[in-house]
Design a protein that fits this description.
heterodimer; A: four-stranded mixed beta sheet; three-stranded antiparallel beta sheet; 9 strands; B: mainly alpha; 0% strand
């Protein structure tokens, strides 16, 4: 259980390295475009600016981030419950010292962890999360954030997001801004000149041929696709980390359902809100990310894995990895082999969970609220209760890739025979 | 002229020494982790001991005819405080947990307590302390398991037996009612 971070390191370094070279190349090309013959200076400038940002991030990143989000450090007397939950989870993870706790004034239910090391880590929670989740669910969310701290994800994701932002900034020089003029109402395009310069430079490079101009061509193309590419790289790295943090949260709380409940609750609440994400916070740091670009794995996948894990004893990383394979059909190659050998984590201590009665009462409250205040969700309660019945039932349910849940008829022996009624593809995996 | 008959055994000896050293250090590291995680439990147990008198004081005014349960909790607390070695402590703390749980079930019959601000604070504290004890114990058991695994596996077992690394005991759950889901909620 102690080596969970090791395996991801190589992959992480590769991603960071790729982004770093991309940044340098883009700096070089930008220099060449504006001041022909001065590409190296451009590269140097990109490097210096990036280093400066990195150093800033390393020492001040979490402070800036928390300030951008409007986070306020709280003490125990302000919110004993939240404080206690953080303390509990830090104890469960064997993390010391206990991270600082911040509250963000926002209705959007979300949370993130930041800091450069476990010693300087902080956990920020929005008021919306606090209102949405009960104590157990809060515990699940905090356990997930504690896992990010314990796995050293916070530093890596912060540095990577700075790199992504730098690449985005260079890219934005070559992106025209279209806006509507406030007085005349006409559409105006600003910033076409850099694109024209880049295009003419591309033409000369194509004409010249040779290795040097090949670099130019690749670099100029990167100016346009680089920001997107960086995002994809960034998100690929962050998704596996989410799974690992979920696995750790399940092991810390010994109660995978608490995080699954929380995730569902959060997404349900978020769907009712106008603004869906916290401004100014890198998405990969949040507990639930927006659908666009998927910093996070699909919520359904995460909850399905956790739900599958819920009845299992002992509760181990191995169990999570198996559930992951069952749900996604992929091999959990990002899981450190050492953690997987540990079959016995969680055999001894009991799990703490809310009684099922408490859960029902809570569910009823949610259902009532939705029915009263959200008339645009027809048949909500029926769908919701049949969903949860499917979850609890021992009848087999398959989760299709498209997000539909397909109940498997008892006479079907292999799910390969089933086509999803929603997307008409073969049903992907069972839960 | 190189004398291989000295160098090869010498190199093998050095290698052996290094690997022995590494496994010894590994054992020491995890043994210290066991100690440290035990201390973490201890801290929380002490918190609970300090919390109980305050809680009793707070509810006494409301619960006039429940002397039996007060005495039971106080006695269990005394026993737990005076426990000397680790296994006694585990036993006594288990009983204190049981006593506290029956105390809580009695408290639930006094709804007027919920209006008491002071009581609500103490209630959250007790709930959290119980949780912390549970999680600290969980972590302790995980670490002990790692330690015992290491102690018994090849080749570390030779070093472990030579240097007298004793097996560490898990904190098992003793009382039957403690094994049930700890229900430390005052609200319904």
């Amino acid at each position: 259980m102690f080596e969970l971070t090791q395996k991801n390191l190589n992959r992480s370094l590769a991603v960071a390295g790729a982004m770093f070279w991309m940044l340098l190349l883009m700096g070089y090309v930008t220099g060449e475009i504006f001041f022909p013959g001065h590409g190296l200076e451009g590269m140097g400038l990109a490097f210096v600016a990036f280093s400066f940002l990195c150093i800033m991030t390393y020492y001040e990143g979490s402070t800036l981030l928390l300030r951008a989000a409007g986070g306020k450090a709280i003490e125990k007397k302000h919110s004993p419950e939240l404080f206690n939950v953080v303390e509990e989870m830090a104890i469960a993870a064997g993390l010391s010292p206990i991270p600082k706790v911040y509250i963000i004034k926002s209705d959007i239910p979300n949370a993130f962890a930041t800091g450069r090391s476990p010693e300087t880590a902080a956990i920020a929670v929005t008021e919306g999360l606090f209102d949405t989740c009960n104590r157990d669910q809060l515990q699940g969310v905090i356990a997930h954030e504690i896992a990010h701290i314990k796995h050293h994800d916070i530093l890596y994701m912060t540095v990577l997001s700075v790199m992504m932002a730098s690449i985005g900034h260079i890219g934005s020089i070559f992106r025209p801004q279209v806006y509507r003029d406030r007085w005349t109402g006409r559409r105006r395009v600003v910033g076409g000149a850099p694109i024209r310069m880049a295009a003419s430079r591309l033409q000369t490079a194509l004409k010249a041929g040779g290795a040097g101009s090949l670099i130019m061509v690749v670099g100029i193309l990167l100016l346009f696709v680089g920001p997107l590419l960086a995002k994809i790289l960034y998100f690929a790295g962050s998704r596996t980390r989410e799974f690992l943090a979920d696995a750790a949260a399940a092991v810390y709380t010994r109660n995978p359902s608490s995080l699954a409940d929380a995730l569902e609750e959060i997404s349900r609440k978020t769907a009712t809100l106008h603004h869906k994400s916290l401004p100014g916070i890198p998405k990969a740091l949040l507990i639930v990310g927006p659908a666009l670009f998927h910093t996070h794995p699909p919520l359904e996948e995460r909850t399905a894995i956790l739900r599958k894990l819920a009845g299992e004893r002992p509760l181990s990383y191995r169990g999570y990895a198996d559930a992951y394979t069952d749900v996604t059909g992929k091999s959990p190659s990002f899981f450190p082999s050492q953690a997987l050998e540990d079959l016995t984590v969680g055999t001894i201590a009991p799990a703490q969970s809310t009684s099922s009665k408490q859960k029902q009462v809570h569910q009823k409250k949610v259902d009532d609220f939705v029915e009263e205040n959200m008339p645009w969700v027809p048949g909500y309660r029926v769908r919701r209760s049949s969903d949860s019945k499917m979850m609890e039932d021992t009848t087999k349910v398959a989760n299709c890739r498209c997000g539909a849940k397909v109940q498997i008829p008892p006479h079907v022996s292999s799910i390969l025979d089933l086509a999803c009624p929603n997307c008409h593809q073969p049903v992907y995996s069972t839960t | 002229m190189v004398d291989w008959s000295i160098i090869i055994p010498g190199a093998l000896g050095a290698l052996l020494f290094l690997s022995l050293m590494a496994s010894y250090n590994g054992l020491i590291r995890i043994k210290n982790l066991v100690e440290n995680s035990w201390n973490q439990i201890d801290v929380q147990l002490k918190r609970r001991h300090d919390l109980i008198p305050n809680l009793m004081e707070c509810v006494k005014g409301y619960m006039k005819h429940e002397d039996g349960i007060f005495a039971k909790v106080a006695q269990a607390r005394n026993l737990a405080q005076n426990a000397q070695n680790r296994s006694d402590k585990m036993e006594a703390e288990g009983q204190l947990t049981g006593a506290l749980m029956s105390f809580i079930s009695v408290v639930e019959a006094y709804p007027e307590l919920k209006a008491n601000q002071n009581f609500m604070v103490l209630q959250e504290e007790l709930k959290s302390t119980e949780n912390k004890i549970g999680f600290a114990r969980q972590y302790y058991n995980d670490v002990v398991m790692d330690y015992n695994n290491k102690r018994e596996s090849f080749p570390t077992m030779f070093i472990a037996s030579f240097c007298h690394f004793a097996e560490e005991a898990y904190w098992q759950i003793q009382a039957v009612d403690e094994r049930m889901v700890p229900k430390v909620s005052f609200s319904n």
